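Hi C.,

You asked whether I'd gotten around to modeling the 497-residue construct. I have! Everything is below, sequence then structure, no commentary in between.
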Amino acid sequence: MAQYIEFSGIGKAYPGVQALKDISFRASEGRVVALLGENGAGKSTLLKILSGDTQPDEGKIIINGEENRIASPYDAITKGISVIYQERQLAPSMSVIENVFAGDLPTKRFGVLDKKKMLQTTQEIIDKFGLPIDPEDPVGRLSVAYQQMVEIMKAYRRDSKIIAFDEPTAPLTDTEIAILFRLINQLREEGKIIIYVSHRLAEIFQITDEIVVLKDGRMVKTMVTAESNESDLIRAMVGRDIGDTYSNLSRNENIGEVLLEVNNLNNDMVHDVSFKLHKGEIVGFAGLIGAGRSEVVRAIFGADPILSGEIKIDGEICKFSSEKDAIDRGIALCPEDRKDQGLVMWRDITDNISMPVLDKLMSGLFISRKKSEDLAERAVEKYSIKTPSLDKIVSELSGGNQQKVILGRWTSDLMDTRILILDEPTKGIDVGTKAEVYQMCCDFAKQGIGVIFISSELTEVINVADNIIVMHNGHITGEVRRAEATEENVLALAMLD
């Protein structure tokens, strides 16, 4: 009899939020089932229930006909369940072998560690998956992609029957994604039950067999992947047909004079970079991972040192010794890593939005909570941030709503942002929110703000930016206007030495 896991009537509520309601579906061995939905649809909550990290308020989980209560992450592991999250759960200073056997070290007589068995088993798994990994290397020296492979090796060594992936391709290159998909296909062929969460619709059609669509905590549709198309998925996710996302954008047609000028910028990662950004213009940065795009904007923002070159705003040379200097001149950065660099995850929405303007929120000697909340309330309303209250801790928000909190911070009515840098602003967010972000960029440009838009998705850069700067290995290799840009000519420049 084929093995399966069934979610039956799963429900979960938090104060002010019904995260899940009556979720029921089955995933079977040898099949990859996608969980799809907008941010806040309930995907992460369902994975937390599967992993034993949280408990459902109602419903049950049935594995091979037997009802199971998954009491803890350790309990999930003993029941053959592994959840591989975006954030690695590895010890960087420990070897691949030690990570693969973490929590379950084999011993010989008298409790002596069986290092020979650990090495042999780890090497067998590496060979099976065809990975160029040394079992004795510290995991921290591996690329993000191969750290993820170690997570898969851990699950495989435990003989997990059910493996869930949470946005596994978000930090990976196309080549690394191909390796990941090869491993997932091997797991599928061995009869594993795979649950796969992603916002990238193209890969849903590439790797999955079935699709479960969630919206506002409810299951709205189940589909056979081969019988579906992208329009069907978008309509199910957002509850409407959003049409051609890019052709519907209301763009700025009145680009003004030069706002930012960068001349011959150099540091350890950036070499002789020069470009101009005009008022009301969206300049896109394209390039392969490691091309130097983020390093350029971090240098402009004062986060990384500059060895030589100059930055001009309104024709005046500026020297920034810190991020505060840049902020004071009207530059704002929404960083690629919003969790570690963009937000204070353990603080609430109000605190995160009001952070750069605390001096303007004083009432006597103290910061006015009322003024701070009024500021945050306006941002929540402006960007339609889904939250039960302003006191919600940002770590509990979906990725898309976290991104909106950062935008709300830098574009509040107490800020004078003139140059807005968006580094991977749509990373890990759903298709409906992506469309909102694209239009926000155009709206910022209409207000005369100069926007720098960085994305690893070529289609985004080509369709959102007015002008595209292409980088490779720290150098600018070309500049293309949107009207002339194609994926082929931009990619060719991105690979040009």
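If it helps when you're writing up: The chain has a mean pLDDT of 90.

Thanks,
B.
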